[in-house]
């Protein structure tokens, strides 16, 4: 029984796997987005990265820093989701609820990136997308604690 | 046999799941702690976050930066623990040792946050809590490498 | 069948476990490398860390910041690999391909650290090691998405 939980026959695991894959691609894309901004604004953090002897290391370009803040926000929120989503799957939750929680995290984190680092949108769009993913992740963590504690 | 390792019938997995859940909640709380400090000190990193046209973006408030350093330290230490704790569980370790290692990581990381970002306590309290978790995580990693290499 | 995937009898899981353990040790070593640079250059970020009343908090030492950038790059690239490597293992991939992908990530991330934070080497060494790991991780993520989507 429990063994079936980590196979693609389990719709909860299948959904978790799909969204984890999508969010890994999204996170890796942040590195490329940072690189694009670095070349556009000629903002390089290491002497060995400078393309021309006329350039100097630079740390405070607002476009580069914006992408880096969005990327760090991913580290803070998506990476804990990877751990807790897998453990939540292993608690054998209701498929309907679990799949919609994974969707909520996946979609809201993509929206978060778009409105933070691609096309800046006035608040509270970013705050809302941030809190949808945070609340869904926290809910899963509470369920996991409850399953393990009793 | 191996299949039983990832069920709550396995006390090692049960303990890992509990502490992983607790530490995910702890990490998510860092975002709220950062937000509280940002509003208290009116330190916002993005123009679209400014609450009033009189405010300017600000990056160097010591209270905000302290919480952010504590949060980053979590990323550096708790997230690798999530990966290695699961793999260590799959090596079927002694339950007594494994459960106490997970407890050591969980409690010392909570202490680390409290003395770093909530009530600042003189060193070496933070250094000690940091090293307890680091050594426990490194020990699990060495056991995992040994199990996989031979 | 699926249950066997997460045992050391599965050469793919065995290889993933080995490299995950090695990369956790490598990541934890970054904290020690940072500490060494902090003491060498007397660069401490918190008032309670200052060893002498003559010292002041300091944030911009280039040697400390270099190690911190290398460490952050690990968070951005190695931590997503831990999640996707496990899910990729659960899709039951070709052992030959999977083991070489894990090796590629493991070795290229060690090279990345060496040429970034230990002995600085001119580009494109660091860029190449970065992209080898990124492309291998992205490939696994695409395979995981494909397995889950169809």
TrEMBL record, chains A, B, C:
Main function: Conjugation of reduced glutathione to a wide number of exogenous and endogenous hydrophobic electrophiles.
EC number(s) recorded for this UniProt protein: 2.5.1.18
InterPro entries: MAPEG-like_dom_sf (IPR023352), Membr-assoc_MAPEG (IPR001129), MGST1-like (IPR040162)
Membrane topology reported for the UniProt record: Multi-pass membrane protein
Pfam families registered for this protein in UniProt: MAPEG (PF01124)
Signal peptide: none
Quaternary state and interactors: Homotrimer; The trimer binds only one molecule of glutathione.
Any one GO molecular-function label of the UniProt entry: glutathione transferase activity
TM region positions: 16-36, 78-95, 101-121, 128-149
The family this protein is said to belong to: Belongs to the MAPEG family.
Chief subcellular location: endoplasmic reticulum
Catalytic reaction list: RX + glutathione = an S-substituted glutathione + a halide anion + H(+)
Protein known as: Microsomal glutathione S-transferase 1
Keyword hit for Signal: no
Coiled coil: none
Gene Ontology cellular component list: endoplasmic reticulum membrane; mitochondrial outer membrane
Entries under Gene3D superfamilies matching the protein: Membrane associated eicosanoid/glutathione metabolism-like domain
Keywords attached to this entry: Acetylation, Endoplasmic reticulum, Membrane, Mitochondrion, Mitochondrion outer membrane, Transferase, Transmembrane, Transmembrane helix
Keyword Ribonucleoprotein attached: no
Localization of this protein: Endoplasmic reticulum membrane; Mitochondrion outer membrane
């Amino acid at each position: 029984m429990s063994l079936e939980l980590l196979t693609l026959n389990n719709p909860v695991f299948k959904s978790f796997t799909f969204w984890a894959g999508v969010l890994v691609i999204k996170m890796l894309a942040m590195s490329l987005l940072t690189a694009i901004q670095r070349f556009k604004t000629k903002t390089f953090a290491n002497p060995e990265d400078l393309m021309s002897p006329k350039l100097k290391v630079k740390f405070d370009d607002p476009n580069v820093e914006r992408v880096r803040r969005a990327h760090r926000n991913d580290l803070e929120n998506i990476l804990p989701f990877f751990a807790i989503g897998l453990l939540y799957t292993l608690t054998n939750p209701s498929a309907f609820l679990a799949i919609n929680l994974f969707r909520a995290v996946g979609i809201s984190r993509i929206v978060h990136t778009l409105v933070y680092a691609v096309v800046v949108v006035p608040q509270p769009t970013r705050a809302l997308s941030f809190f949808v993913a945070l609340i869904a992740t926290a809910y899963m963590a509470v369920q996991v604690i409850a399953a393990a504690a009793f």
